[in-house]
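TA notes. Do not distribute before section.
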Amino acid sequence: MESLLFLFPQFSYMAPKEEAYFKTLSPEDFQAPKMKNDNSRQKDKEKKSRLSLFLTKSGSHENVSTQKKSPSNISAEAALQWSNSFEELLKHSDGVETFSQFLKTEFSEENIEFWLACEEYKTIDSDTKLLSKAKYIYTVFIESDAPKEVNIDHDTKTAIRRNLSQPTRNCFEAAQKNIYSLMKKDSFPRFLNSDIYLHLTSHLRSKGPGAPMFRRRSRSCVFNERGEATT
């Protein structure tokens, strides 16, 4: 393909008049505006991604201690109580942390993080902080292509977006209930069968007669009217 040659006069008044410089333009140079627009759109996407990441790091765990217990520091007796119900697990910070570790292995830790963010949201008294937190939750967990988007239906997502300008304390209630039900009926039974949980209670199950009885739950389970897993 031919290249075009453009000649330009020398703009330096000190240079000889006959001196000139030139630049060879290839066909790709004519595509520069398009490439510039594409680069601009890419930079906008990267900027949005960095903003979402910043929001995630700066606002999601203000009240959570940085000193976390490892599974080896959790007593088997305490861990055994979590199997009573999903509600019992959520009452214990160690239970929440261990459950979060399990969800990470299934790439669904955003569910417990969203639920915790909603719990914190409902305790805010200041209207200004409530608005700020509502926008944060929407940006990180709700909107399409959010960095930690949770799986909720379109109508629920639309209702949240509509109320975002003047959020109330129950703004995320429907979405939180949906994610809670998903974790309770789907993730929690698998958690009780996971290596993470069984490792915590292994020494109780190996003590023999007289020790508290614990039986590994079957992966085939049904749910009663209260939504609890039964075998």
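Switch to the second chain here.
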Amino acid sequence: MPWQPSINKIPGGLLWLATQRTTNTSEISAMSRKLIQTVAETISKQVEHFSKTEIECLIREYKVLLGEPTVPGRAVNGLDRGKFRSMLHNMFGMTDDMIMDGVFRTFDKDNDSFVSMNEWIEGLSVFLRGTLDEKIKYCFHVYDLNGDNYISREEMFHMLKNSLVRQPTEEDPDEGIRDLVEITLKKMDHDHDGRLSFADFEKAVREENLLLEAFGTCLPDSMSIETFEQHVFQVDIL
């Protein structure tokens, strides 16, 4: 039997999701149970790591997060950047704007500025349960800020500057970050061209798994995953 938290021990993210579910229950009824099952059946053949039942739960959660259209009568295309970032912050504790934008861009595979239901489920399969291979590709894409298939010195500098806590006694913190970038390149830039290709990044991470999130936290910790999955996958399904 799954662990059932007492109300005073429920994490903040779970309370946020519970509030969302309470205030948006009408959205769930927008898709019939049969339609959800049919869609889940189709998606389950395309996405790894989730069962058909779990995908049904994720479809329901997606509808809850989607909420009401901002313009009455206009169809909602998907989760926009704001809603997606709110979910990352409230449920998974992410606070770095640059990294959250990178996660959004990685989920939004067709680059239409919305995360569709399929993109949501496909993205979560890696975000929550991905293999090391999948996570290496995911993290590289998050860190490749301009989408040119390389992580440049400038991108490393901006990401590290955002993610590191500055000490008030530091006279020139940027200088320390530049030094860290050079140390990182020395460790990870195997072809010595002053930037990281996917091959560089993959080789470095395979040699040292801790380098997977070298430029900022872009994957959830185990507690956040447990909280999210416990909430979403405990939906009653008859």
